[in-house]
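Q:
My hope is that you can spare some time for a protein that puzzles me. I hope you can help me see how the letters and the tokens relate. Thank you; the sequence and its tokens follow:
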Amino acid sequence: MEPTADAASYAGNANPAGGVKRLSVNPLKISQTVGGTLALQGVYHAMPILHGAQGCAAFTKALMTRHYREPVALQTSALQEFNVIFGGEASLFEALDTIRAKHNPDVTVVLSTALTDVSGEDIRGELNLYRKRHDMGGKLLSCAMLPDFQGSLESGYARTIEALLEDVLTGANHPKKKIRNRVNLLPGAHLTPGDVMELKEIISSFGLEVIALPDISTSLAGHLLTGHTPLSRGGVPLDLLKQAAASEWTIAVGQSMEGAAKLLEKHAEIPYKLFKGVTGLDATDDFFAFLQRIGSEPVSVKYRWQREFLMDAMLDAHFVYGGKKIALALEADHLGVLEGWFREMGARPDIRVAAARPHSGGKLSPGTLIGDLGDLEDLSADGVDLWVSNSHGEQGAHRLGVPFVPCGFPIFDRFGAGLTVSVGYRGTTEWMNQIGNQLLAAERRNHA
């Protein structure tokens, strides 16, 4: 279990993230394998293989399908007890043979689980042996080590992208010459398909070509296609993924994506710019200022108007946000983004629980607890004005009589989770109005 804080450690003012919690009452953390599976939905004709028990894949697929309400590409090696004892190589090779024969994916990524990591299976060595025995025909076969007892959805997502880039960039076929006005976009796990689409549109408006990795905006945003395929139905194609090495810049959104950006810098000599988030006036201004510096077009009138709308909306809503006490429980990147935005609005995001330690060297702000939704409920018992977490936290918010806003993953009891936008000027305005309406409704109930 990820190290968290015990009850005594957050009684004082010190950062509580150093203690150890031995029981998760209402879990917040989502498995790394879910994050790895999510990342691969943004790669065209990809197939993730969970190398572990069949139930691991079933749970992951059910959780993602409930959130996105879209088909999810996923297979499993379906290990049994004797496979773990004598080694899972035969089961993995059988799964690879079957999937390649039936579905012929462009990208196949084996995701480890706690079962295979604890048993000490050498998955990388097994895949090297498989490549020697089979002609891959230009297809990519990779692996990411994602044990359930470490990290969370965010780190699993980031590590999978890092594994893909490592294999692509160390190959002999990626281009060396840079293409003018082409940029790579590395969107963090906290961004929705709607967010990724918004960021792509903003970047493109500056005359820049965008390669997004992963690109869940074309796979999980919702579209109707004739026929059925068990592979991912959208995302960045393998040939375009290889072209990422020819970009002039990399834009990483989310601290957890800095590791992937550093790989592009190391292997392809591409400079990168890291944005912790693009939600809020200051953060979006910084994003646009950078794009204006590297792009070939000025800021369009459309976005100038959107900025005016956001500033007017902030003026309208500041009285309802000011001084409000907010409780947040999210993945580390998402938590940092919303904490900063709430402070920009004059609110007090004083109660903060992260699912796990940040990936890629990121840091939590002082006073943030690494814990679960039970911790958030305990810390909110003295009174808060708003509770923000995934759908698993709604019952806790209702027990306290606190307004609840679903955010993060999973959201399984509302439509449109994948289409919500909270980035850029337009997305920030929409998000601010959604939260503001919740706060206004609570004030009416309190005065009734």
Q: What stands out?
A: The radius of gyration is 22 Å.
